[in-house]
């Protein structure tokens, strides 16, 4: 049998004997198998009416003289560790902090602490050398000009925290700026804006009867745009209203063509449904003639020349098609449609 178990058995046996026949003057207690030094509480009740000396044969035990009394340790009287220092009693200038320790154990020889006694210590503390002082606001400055020159805007005014200035981390109560709406009673000007350019006109030579379609002969074509939306003295659109360029007319001209590479696969169709398909295609694109792409304009200025019109490309048939070949394939691993 282990020593602790033997001692526990001895305490219980002593308790039973104490109940049956307690010696004159013996002090019976509530005997506990553990005393918590940190909390000063007794745990693990062994029995009631146990002689104090029998209970305290094990110095790790604890006891209570009555059920609602304080728990006392069986070991010799000793001081607990000091508690942490309390917060400072003030938030600025000088205050105090306290801490304490408790005596646990039975009364011992002279010089030992007394049971249930408590000691206190106190020291000075100073979180801040001075206390914050609230400042005062100066007078409001004048309102700023309205933030806009037409319609409605905002005005702002400010004041400073200098009357008096705050001290030791203090501040002024309230806001240092405020706003209000303002109305100029004016309608805002509306600047003009360009519409999109029109389509290019037919590439031709208007000053002569020379036919320039499908030949290495340059013509001219123009496109126009209009300025819209200007009102209430707004700005006019900047730039020309007409654009003119030199051109070669290839409208409906029969030109040698070449097949493009396959395009990327398109979207699956239908996007939600059974058996969606994807497609890609190759197109027969015209090979434009090797005409000069610049001409000399007025005052020796070099002008670019553009091809205009939609030619008719000619390619060797591909899969029986002359202009477009399309390929389709089913989309794979399609999840079901969501609601």
TrEMBL record:
The subcellular localization recorded is: Secreted
- Zinc found in the keyword field: no
Q: Where is the signal peptide?
A: 1-26
Q: Which Pfam family name is an example for this entry?
A: TSR
Keyword Disulfide bond in the entry? The reply is yes
What InterPro entries does the database record attribute to this sequence?
A: CFP_TSR-0 (IPR049536), CFP_TSR_C (IPR054019), Compl_asym_regulator (IPR052065), TSP1_rpt (IPR000884), TSP1_rpt_sf (IPR036383)
Species the sequence originates in: Podarcis lilfordi (Lilford's wall lizard)
Q: What are the record keywords, sorted?
A: Disulfide bond, Repeat, Secreted, Signal
Q: Which domain of life is it from?
A: Eukaryota
Major site of localization recorded for this protein: secreted
Q: Which named protein is this? A: Complement factor properdin
């Amino acid at each position: 049998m282990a020593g602790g178990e033997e001692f526990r058995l001895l305490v219980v046996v002593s308790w039973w004997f104490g109940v049956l026949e307690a010696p004159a003057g013996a002090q019976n207690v509530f005997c506990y198998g553990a005393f918590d030094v940190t909390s000063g509480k007794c745990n693990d009740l062994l029995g009631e009416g146990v002689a104090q000396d029998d209970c305290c044969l094990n110095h790790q035990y604890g006891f209570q003289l009555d059920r609602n009394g304080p728990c006392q340790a069986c070991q010799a009287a000793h001081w607990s560790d000091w508690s942490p220092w309390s917060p400072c009693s003030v938030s600025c200038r000088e205050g105090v902090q306290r801490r304490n320790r408790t005596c646990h154990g039975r009364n011992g020889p002279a010089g030992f602490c007394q049971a249930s006694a408590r000691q206190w210590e106190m020291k000075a503390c100073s979180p801040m050398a001075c206390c914050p002082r609230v400042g005062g606001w100066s007078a409001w400055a004048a309102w700023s000009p309205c933030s806009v020159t037409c319609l409605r805007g905002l005005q702002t005014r400010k004041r400073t925290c200098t009357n008096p200035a705050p001290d030791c981390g203090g501040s002024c109560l309230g806001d240092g700026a405020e706003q209000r709406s303002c109305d100029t009673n004016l309608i805002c000007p509306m600047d003009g804006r360009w519409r999109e350019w029109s389509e290019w006109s037919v590439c031709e030579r208007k000053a002569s009867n020379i036919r320039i379609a499908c030949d290495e002969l340059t013509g001219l074509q123009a496109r126009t745009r209009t300025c819209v939306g200007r009102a209430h003295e707004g700005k006019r659109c900047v730039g020309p209203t007409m654009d003119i360029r030199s051109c070669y007319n290839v409208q409906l001209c029969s030109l040698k063509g070449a097949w493009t590479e396959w395009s990327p696969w398109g979207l699956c169709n239908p996007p939600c449904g059974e058996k969606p398909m994807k497609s890609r295609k190759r197109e027969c694109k015209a090979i434009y003639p090797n005409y000069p792409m610049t001409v000399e304009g007025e005052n020796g200025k070099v002008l670019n020349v553009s091809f205009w019109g939609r030619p008719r490309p000619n390619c060797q048939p591909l899969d029986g098609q002359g202009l477009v070949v399309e390929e389709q394939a089913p989309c794979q691993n399609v999840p079901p449609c969501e609601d």
